Amino acid sequence: MYDYLIVGAGLFGATCANLLAKKGKKVLVIDRRNHIAGNVYTEKVEGINVHKYGAHIFHTDYKDVWDYVNSFVEFNRYTNSPIARIGNEVYNMPFNMNTFSKIWDDVFTPEDAMRHINEEKKEITGEPKNLEEQAISLVGRSIYEKLIKGYTEKQWNRDCKDLPAFIIKRLPVRLIYDNNYFNDRYQGIPMGGYTLLVEKMLEGIEVRLNTNFFDNKEELMSLADKVIYTGPIDEYFDYSLGKLEYRSLKFDTKILDQVNYQGNAVVNYTGHEVEYTRVIEHKHFEFDSTSPKTVVTFEYPSDYEEGMEKYYTINDDKNNALAEQYRELASKEEKTIFGGRLAEYKYYDMDDVIKSAFDCVEKL
Ligand code: FAD
Ligand code: UDP
Asked: Please, what are the domains in the chain?
């Protein structure tokens, strides 16, 4: 009946569905949630687009991905510039001259900042082996202790010495006064929300919500020539090689009777004095809110437990090795193709997911 069954209406599934339908293929998309868009889902609360599964800022260096998403909706000029709070202090993120000049009171120029960083990073010799060593060698121990250690321990519930170095390399370190969190050429938030973006991508395509692939696997698979699966890879194989680990989050969202709560979309809390890592004030992602209220979300990292969402893959050596074994199994599946953050077990950003879906459809 269908050329393709796509399991998951997140960005990977929606991109594949859209491109395959454009090529004349008959596509069915299913999702076990009661809405489309996966983790980028936004819903309107008090006239404000609330990022239901955590703050999502679109940024990319891929021109084809940027042109593609802009073909569905317009993006605004949002530039992510989080601030970090620890105790009674406030710092600019990512690590740049604004941060350095506040950490060290004799820093005015890049040379002053480098003098401090070079002095502090002397304790690391050789190639950094873990997140702690990587962080100290990038910005020195003072910044590591204030802005990285506590946040990272809360986020991952692991010692920074037991985490891979690549996690902290996501963040830019700049010797200019520039608070833009990303280096990418293109950045913004879809006007009208991410749900509108995915709605447009799925226009004209049959979507069945509240439909769990595993409740009816044989029957659903028999409906199509090929299956594109975007859920957790270990779940597909019924955890036959063991369970992969994931990190989850709990979101506490409040509607406040005030116009402006924290003056910024993203405020990171980098110390252990509070358990949350970030507070998101959703209206500041947009520039046209006239709401007299505001919606804020406190983000609490959490161990993954049955029934929770699997937000972050944990790409340490142990889990990467197990994921590789699952990928081996996946490569032998004749009818099913695996893609997206959970099915590839990769710490993918949205643009990586779309790019990977482009490649997937190209191969098909
Ligand atoms: P998902 O969005 O997870 O979609 C998978 C879909 O499959 C889900 O809807 C799920 O319900 C469905 N599914 C799974 N199993 C089944 C099943 N058995 N049956 C039916 N349906 C099933 N990226 C950025 O670029 N910028 C950001 O600022 C950013 N912020 C983030 C913040 C947080 C808190 C998190 C967790 C991620 C963030 N990301 C960000 C990453 C971004 O969310 C992902 O790259 C992207 O959403 C992944 O899309 P996906 O389609 O692979 O997965
Ligand atoms: N990080 C930090 N302090 C911050 C923000 C981030 O130490 O104020 C570290 C932390 O280890 C985090 C990593 O940088 O896991 C990547 O941060 P990013 O904002 O990219 O995380 P994500 O948006 O994926 O949650």
From this structure: 2-36+202-244+314-363 (3.40.50.720), 95-168 (no CATH)
